[in-house]
Amino acid sequence: MKNKKGDIESSIFVYVVVAILVLIAVILIITYFNKSGTSAMEFIKNIFKFGSG
Known about the structure:
The chain is 64% helix and 0% strand. The protein has 2 helices and no strands.
């Protein structure tokens, strides 16, 4: 079965859609934390701070 010229393989299409959704989620999270006064970098640092009281 030959692929038509210009068709996107379904598995690649799924990865592209997931990547776009993740990008939108990251942008929304960053804008939320910038508006709430907590910087995104501080939030990320707090996530990776394990057991250091």
